[in-house]
Design brief:
Blueprint: H1 2-16, E1 25-29, H2 32-48, E2 57-60, E3 69-75, H3 83-86, H4 88-95, E4 98-106, H5 108-112, H6 121-132, E5 136-139, E6 143-144, E7 149-150, E8 154-158
Parallel strand pairs: 1-2, 1-3, 3-4
Antiparallel strand pairs: 4-8, 5-8, 6-7
Length: about 180
């Protein structure tokens, strides 16, 4: 559930701080349960703020085929099962469809502690690559903003073309597509 709080905060920051219009934001989830929780969370955001957060695009990876989107938030926080992460094609699809900005949320301890994690070579290689290229960031301290607070640690994978910290304003502001 902490990942939902983090992503909702990120949505608010992308919209308010970076002035990215809501229709250019997309959340991709791995599982139906995550999808339903996000759907409820977006309605709650709509009720709390004047912006139309219920208009954020929300898809499961399996229903998002061969489409590209301006700014994607990919939630790969896996609590019980890593079956989705075993499917290279689906994982590649989830990580390769962002045009201007990509935020990928992992729960590293959950993934690395799973039996079979080391058997998924491409997943291990991908996470090692993100770590070695300094594009994997662990939010170890209390995560707080003026909108939402979350005390759980996450790992945030940033598109290698984006500098850390992953401020919403770091996305290519020159892109007319993001603001219209």
């Amino acid at each position: 559930m902490h990942n939902i709080v983090y992503v909702c905060d990120l949505l608010i920051r992308l919209h308010t701080d970076a002035d990215i219009i809501i229709k250019n934001l997309l959340i991709l989830t791995s599982y139906q349960a995550q999808y339903l929780i996000y759907k409820t969370a977006l309605i709650e955001l709509q009720n709390l703020f004047e912006a139309q957060y219920d208009k954020v695009l929300l898809h499961k990876v399996s229903s998002f085929q061969d489409e590209h989107h301006s700014v994607m938030i990919v939630d790969l926080v896996i609590i019980k099962f890593i079956d989705f992460l075993r499917d290279y094609d689906r994982l590649n699809l989830a990580l390769s469809r962002a045009r201007y900005g990509r935020y990928v949320i992992f729960n590293m301890s959950s993934i690395r502690d799973r039996s079979g994690y080391h058997d998924i070579k491409y997943l291990k290689d991908m996470l090692d690559h993100f770590t070695n290229t300094h594009t994997l960031y662990s939010l170890q301290t209390q995560f707080a903003s003026v909108y939402i607070t979350d005390e759980r640690a996450f790992a945030l994978v940033i598109d290698p073309t984006t500098d850390y910290p992953p401020e919403p304003g770091e996305i290519d502001k020159n892109s007319h597509d993001l603001h219209s």
